[in-house]
Amino acid sequence: MGNIPSEEDWGEYWKDLDQKSAYGSFFGRSNEQLQSQFHKDGIELVYEIRFMPKRVFDYYVLGLRDFIISGDFPDHEAADFSSCFLDMVIYLLEHDPQMISSRIKDLTPALKYVADNQKIYDAPVDIYGDFSEKFIKIKKLCKLNKLD
Fold first, then answer.
1. What is the pLDDT of residue 67?
2. Dihedral (C-alpha) 117, 25, 37, 73: value to the nearest 10 degrees?
3. Residue 35 scores a pLDDT above 70
4. Which long-range contacts (CB under 8 A, 24 or more apart) does 127-135 make?
5. What's the whole-number mean pLDDT along residues 28-54?
6. Is the confidence at residue 26, as pLDDT, over 70?
7. How far is 66 from 14, CA to CA, in rounded Å?
8. What is the mean pLDDT of residues 46-63?
9. Which of 1, 80, 82, 120 has the most other CB atoms within 10 Å of its CB?
10. What is the model's pTM?
C-alpha cells in the first residue's frame, strides 16, 4: 500500500478545517492501525477521507476499502459504512474526479462487491437506495471522466 503519508504530503492542512480534522485522525497511522479506528470512530473517518490531499487520500482510501470488505463493522453500522463508501466515490467522481483517478481501479472490485451484496450489509433499498444502481452510476461517471 505504500508508505504512510508524511507531513509534507499533508501540505498546509491547517488552512482547511476538514483537512485539519483528518490530519488529527490519520496522521502517522498505518492503514493496519486504522482498522480499529474505523471500527471505533465510524462514519466520521469516511467523511474525513474525501477532504484529504490527493497523495494522502491515495493511501488511506485503500485502508477504508479494506475495512469495508472485512465486514468488521460496529453493531448495526454495516449499512451506513457500505452506503457511505459508495456515496463517497460518487461524490468524488462528480466533484473532483482527479482526486480518485489513480485509485478507482483499486476500488472497483470492492465497490462491485458492496453493490452485489446489499443484503449482507443489511441496507434496505428504501432507506439506502439501490447499491446496484449506485455502482452503475459509478461506472458511468468513470466513463464520462475517462477513468475506465
1. 92
2. -20
3. yes
4. 127/79, 128/79, 128/82, 128/83, 129/83, 131/82, 131/83, 131/86, 134/86, 134/87, 134/90, 135/86, 135/111
5. 87
6. yes
7. 28
8. 93
9. 82
10. 0.91
Length of the chain: 148
C-alpha cell at 123: 441496507
Alpha-carbon distances of 22 from 79, 84, 124, rounded to whole Å: 23, 17, 30
**Which three cell numbers, joined as nine digits, stand for 9?**
504530503
Amino acid letter for position 14: W
Residue 82: the pLDDT is 94
Q: Which residues contact 102 (CB under 8 A, 6 or more apart)?
A: 54, 58
